[in-house]
Design goal:
235 residues, alpha/beta, Rossmann fold, 2 domains, 6-stranded parallel beta sheet, 3-stranded antiparallel beta sheet, 9 strands, 15% strand
Length: 235
Amino acid sequence: MTKRKGLVIAMDGPAGVGKSTVGGLVAKSLGYKFINTGEMYRALTWKGLEVGVDLEDQAAVVELAKKIDWEFKPIEEGGSTLKTFIDGVAVTSQIREEKVSINSSLVAANPGVRKFLSKLQRELGEGGSIVMEGRDITTNVFPDADVKIYLDASPEERADRRYRQLKAAGQEADRDKILAAILKRDLNDLKREINPLKQAEDAFVIDSTKLTLHEVADKILRRIRKGAKTPSHAR
């Protein structure tokens, strides 16, 4: 087993709660690397659509995942956020396409894909000095993480945040539809047969409903610097 040069900080929580923003802030403050593991599933979905693989054919999707040349590195020199490269291509914008969003849950529910990508994630984080976020990082990928965070917020607050984000970007947005989509995704994540979303018993739980994401990051950093690993809830 690789000796860790720094901490493995694992962060779980439902969709739209700000894990990527918070994880990036924490990683930058500590001089660590950060990765959003959900991007790996989106990247595989994009590649499958590009090459015409039937995403419902679980064996074919797993075979594709194993053929791909996976790389995780910053796009900008000296950056802390690791991005997914597929066969040498940085797929940052491609994985946000609507066709990818529609099909990624199918790929993420594939048991063979989850097993393969979880192994990649462990290899990526085993050296430490990394913040990893996803929806099964603390319970499945890194149950032995040095620090476990479960970031939560009410569905209404998450819908409001997404609505404001889209409007600020000049896009049309329907707050009710956004809320309905969040509730549906939460249900799917909780009921997923393979590695469902759940709170690790020893996670530091933060309800960010009434906090800014910078305030959340500060709470996590204070927790890390105190070195506490016992279960706790922050409100």
